[in-house]
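From the methods appendix. Each design record in this collection lists the tokenized structure first, followed by the designed amino acid sequence. Records were kept in a plain field format so they could be parsed without special tools. The example shown here is representative of the layout used throughout.

RECORD:
FOLD TOKENS (602 positions):
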């Protein structure tokens, strides 16, 4: 996810900004930039790629004396990773950096363009600086113009703004995306997390949603909906690695908790009131397409398999899912009437990339769903939809799976819209469910504590069955994959109806069955399948909104109005179960043995 730094003071600003941005590299980025105002001198530098490129551009630039400065590392959401799209964004006399997504940016952009404003970038962020300068024309009080600007923004944002109209002040606002203020004497620092200011600031204040204000030399004012407020500083921690984890024990745990936020980022600007919109897809993209083939590996394969049910149910389009490592050698039948979709978290998965090249050579139209813009798979594809998950440091994927599944659900409904295979009522129902998805993946602390307590019962035995039906079968595969990746215990996912065709021979008291039992889909069928296992004395952990009397353990879920909301809530339960079992076994949760984050070899 994008990173912000800011500094107001007399020290050399370039190095403070660049060092701070370097501390945010772990969040992932594709471009970076800084802007500095000292007196009447305004300087800006931007570069795509790694920070070394920005350092090279600024090697002859130095600052001295009091000034204000802002910097940013960008993870592309709107627009490609180019210098024009990199932050800071410039108006006529102001600069802005921003994390998050402005949900109503298209409306604001059209309004500003109608007023004669020319946009240089493809980003949502640029609307902030132009809207501010528009407000400043009618209100010479800079802070009032900034307040009026913030009031118009919808969505998630953490933003810093500097302007030649007030060259001694940094203006800031926070809603939905993290930002903090660091203090050391008269020096003031801003950052997305603790790490850029550790060793520089001594105290810190963590901004709350809806707070905004300004910083001058030796003075910081903070406001909310009720006006100016007092705030209490805290002593700043000194452990940079711990600070990157934001108080969580492991990056994987942090990323499970982040899923609600990134799910919101995934849907913003795409799930509209009455339709799905992808700015990445031309109106005629699906013209002449009569089937879909999805190719992926591991977790991405599981998300693809779940989506195949949705493409056929909502889009009325035949959908086949292929394991990339097998697809490459099966001499597949490829037709230009089939859309070839590849899915990869990193965009560098070797097997998937080679399968994509085969499809391209056969003249197929290609689409990639990926988390990293400008990656090999994205560059090779005709077009790409970014999942907006931000960087994922835990090897066992969590938020990448969640956002891939979300994008594929949206895409299935999008196909239904353009093919007219879904009614307006169905579109309304699906959109309503999509808008509730970020809440469905929000981790409840009581739930996490219950899973922690239960986990001590699942440290032995001869294996796990994860079972489900329909889209919950791929979720069972994913739940089993998460557990085996980080606990090193044997686990398999099965369609629940397949138990009686062989696997049930393994059932006994030392076999743990994780039963995904959604109320909204085939509940009675899977209940019958679980009863068959219970009759063989298998140990049952039921995950369901409905209590199940034969379960040895039961985790009650809340969402039961739509299968995909149950899907996402149960996904979180299986992720937390794998995490807690692994922790109890003393394993390295973030770096499990024998595995790599991005598999770039066959």
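DESIGN:
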């Amino acid at each position: 996810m994008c990173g912000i730094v800011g500094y107001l003071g007399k020290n050399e600003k370039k190095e403070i900004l660049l060092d701070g941005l370097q501390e945010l590299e772990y969040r992932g980025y594709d471009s970076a930039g800084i802007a500095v105002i000292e007196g009447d001198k305004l300087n800006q530098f931007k570069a795509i790629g790694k920070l070394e490129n920005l350092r090279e551009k600024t090697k002859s630039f130095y600052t001295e004396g009091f000034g204000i400065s802002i910097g940013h590392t960008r993870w592309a959401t709107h627009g490609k990773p180019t210098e024009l799209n990199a932050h800071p964004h410039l108006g006529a006399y102001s600069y802005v950096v921003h994390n998050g997504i402005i949900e109503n940016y298209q409306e604001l952009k059209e309004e500003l363009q109608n007023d004669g404003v020319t946009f240089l970038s493809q980003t949502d962020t640029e609307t902030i600086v132009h809207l501010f300068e528009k407000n400043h024309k009618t209100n010479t009080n800079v802070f009032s113009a900034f307040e009026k600007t913030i009031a118009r923004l919808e969505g998630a944002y953490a933003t810093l703004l500097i302007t030649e109209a007030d060259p001694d002040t940094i203006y800031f606002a926070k809603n939905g995306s993290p930002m903090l203020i660091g203090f050391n004497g008269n020096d003031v620092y801003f950052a997305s997390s603790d790490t850029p200011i550790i060793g520089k600031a001594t105290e810190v204040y963590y901004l709350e949603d809806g707070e905004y204000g300004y910083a001058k030399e030796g003075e910081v004012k903070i406001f909310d909906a009720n006006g100016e407020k007092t705030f209490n500083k805290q002593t700043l921690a000194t452990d940079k690695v711990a600070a990157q984890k934001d108080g969580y024990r492991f990056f994987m745990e942090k990323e499970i908790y982040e899923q609600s936020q990134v799910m919101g980022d995934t849907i913003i600007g795409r799930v509209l009131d009455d339709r799905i919109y992808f700015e990445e897809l031309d109106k005629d993209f699906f013209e002449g397409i009569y089937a879909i083939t999805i190719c992926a590996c591991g977790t991405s394969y599981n998300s693809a398999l779940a989506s195949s049910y949705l493409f056929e149910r909502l889009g009325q389009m035949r959908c086949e899912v292929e394991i990339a490592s097998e697809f490459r050698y099966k001499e597949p039948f490829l037709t230009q009437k089939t859309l070839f979709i590849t899915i990869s978290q990193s965009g560098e998965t070797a097997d998937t990339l080679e399968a994509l090249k085969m499809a391209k050579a056969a003249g197929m139209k290609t689409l990639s769903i990926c988390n990293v813009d400008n990656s090999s798979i994205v560059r090779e594809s005709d077009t790409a939809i970014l999942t907006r998950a931000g960087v994922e440091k835990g090897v066992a994927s969590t938020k990448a799976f969640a956002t891939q599944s979300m994008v594929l659900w949206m895409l299935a409904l999008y196909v239904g819209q353009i093919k007219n295979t879904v009614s307006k009522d169905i579109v309304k129902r699906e959109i309503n469910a999509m808008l509730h998805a970020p809440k469905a993946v929000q981790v409840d602390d009581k739930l996490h504590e219950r899973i922690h307590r239960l986990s001590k019962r699942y440290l032995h035995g001869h294996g796990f069955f994860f079972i489900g039906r329909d889209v919950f079968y791929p979720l069972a595969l994913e739940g089993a994959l998460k557990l085996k990746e980080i606990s090193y215990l044997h686990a398999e996912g099965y369609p629940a109806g397949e138990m009686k065709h062989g696997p049930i021979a393994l059932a006994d008291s030392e076999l743990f069955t994780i039963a995904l039992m959604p109320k909204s889909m085939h509940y009675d069928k899977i209940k019958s399948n679980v009863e068959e296992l219970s009759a063989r004395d298998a140990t049952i952990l039921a995950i369901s909104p409905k209590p199940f009397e034969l379960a040895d353990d039961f985790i009650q879920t809340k969402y039961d109005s739509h299968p995909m909301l149950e899907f996402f809530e149960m996904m979180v339960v299986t992720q937390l179960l794998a995490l807690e079992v692994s922790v109890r076994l003393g394993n390295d949760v973030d770096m499990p043995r024998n595995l790599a984050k991005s598999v770039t070899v066959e």
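APPENDIX NOTE: The longest helix spans residues 563-584.
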